[in-house]
Amino acid sequence: MSDPKDYIIEIVEETPSELSNKASTKKTWTFAGIVQGLSAIILEWTPFGLVASYYVFSTCLYMYCSDGLIAIFWFIYMCTNFYIAGTTVLEAFFSITPCREARKIITQAQEKGWLFPTADRQLPILDLIIVAYLPNEQDIIMDRAMYALEQLDYSRERIRINIVYNTPNPIEPLESELHQLPLRYPHARIIKVPASTSKAENLNYFLTLDTGSDLIAIYDCDHYPHPNSPRWAAERFMADSEVDIVQGRCIVFNSNDTFLTSMIAVEFDKIYAVSHPGRSTMWGFGLFCGSNGYWRTSLLREMKMDSSMLTEDIDSALRAFSRGCKTVHDLNVTSYELAPTTVSAFWKQRLRWAQGWAQASMRHVKMVYNDVQDPLREAHSKRNVTARLGVLSLLLIRESSYYLVTQYTCLVLSFLIVKFPSSGKELWTLVYFQYPVSQWLFIISLVCLVATLWITNQVKSEFVSRRMIIIFSALYPFYLVVNATIGLYGHARQLVKYSSWNPTARK
């Protein structure tokens, strides 16, 4: 939160002739600083006020609705929940095939003594980029750099480990130690980006350099790529010349740090091992997710990153899809990352994601009705119906679901206020079985949820236990409400044109 004191500017007078003007000058600058500080505070808290007002107004509105109108709303929201649950379980079932294929490939590699199809000397030249914001990641950057330089199983003649960072102030002796790495490791490259304030600007600066690579891998600074991940990604490109982007699976490895990190670890297994590959199979397109993603260098140099977007990764993924590029999700391309350990860090991260998704959705929802267009390559073709429905579900329906979920929550709250139950049985009947159709919609939705989490359990990472999945399942309704509230908050921030970029805290 901004503090008005941050904007008070002290004028120091040096000569006696200027002393007479000191008081008035100081007052002017101090007043301007306070105004700026108050403006920043208002901008920070306006989204909270909008979301809080939304909840209060909606709940009060339902308290005064007639029973007939309530029945209509109830039916709409239960059908919405059913659609969300049904889509989720379909994606989960579609993820079974890519999971089996990934395991089959691993088994075949083991049987061949981990002899990969492509000889080392024929591997594509790879630029692996670790993007860092030093004040926030100064405690981990050296560890991640050394890991990448020493542990990745890729021919050192065909790979460059690029540490691309920005910092508003010099940090010594860390920066000097970083710049000494190329003396010990010839495949290291350290790049300090001048005047950069974001990940997108760091990447765009790197893309102006002629490095001669065939592929570019992008990693956030907190990641530990699996030693074989670059090799699996390269093999995917070698096996299919039409592949433009390979997105790997991200796994949270600090799941035991706090209860919050354990729930995020389950969520990431559900997203990266189930939802992403399932959606890719179901709708026919994948997405670059910001880290542990591999691009053909020529494509990334053409597209670059849009630094005006809070989630430049999602924007770039959707721009690539709009041009007809092929993105695949490979579950063998794994990387291990840190989850936020505090509620504050989690909240800031998810609000940035929510607003970024809102920005990207508004910009790219037109793909529902327009065709594939590649202005740089002058390509033009029809987008199939399945892909259009996938875009509709991913962008428009997903963003709209935040309102449907929260409206359902407000409806339930109004019931609790107006007809507060005196027993658990009455509460159960009130919330779920107020109307007969609710029974079937609720039961089917519950079955879909159980099926989705059962599939997640089959592909869970080594850092997630069955107990974590059971707890996550029990808390899933609350997770949906929290996630929807964060989505509304992101919309409110976009409405007031909030533009601060808050990096995730790393430890």
TrEMBL record:
Alphabetized CDD domains for the sequence: CESA_like
Membrane-spanning residues: 29-57, 69-94, 402-420, 440-457, 469-492
A GO CC term assigned to this protein in UniProt: membrane
Pfam families documented for this protein: Glyco_trans_2_3 (PF13632)
Domain of life: Eukaryota
Protein topology in the membrane: Multi-pass membrane protein
MF GO annotations: aspartic-type endopeptidase activity; glycosyltransferase activity
PANTHER family: CELLULOSE SYNTHASE CATALYTIC SUBUNIT A [UDP-FORMING]
Protein name: Glycosyltransferase 2-like domain-containing protein
Record organism: Neocucurbitaria cava
Classification lineage: Eukaryota, Fungi, Dikarya, Ascomycota, Pezizomycotina
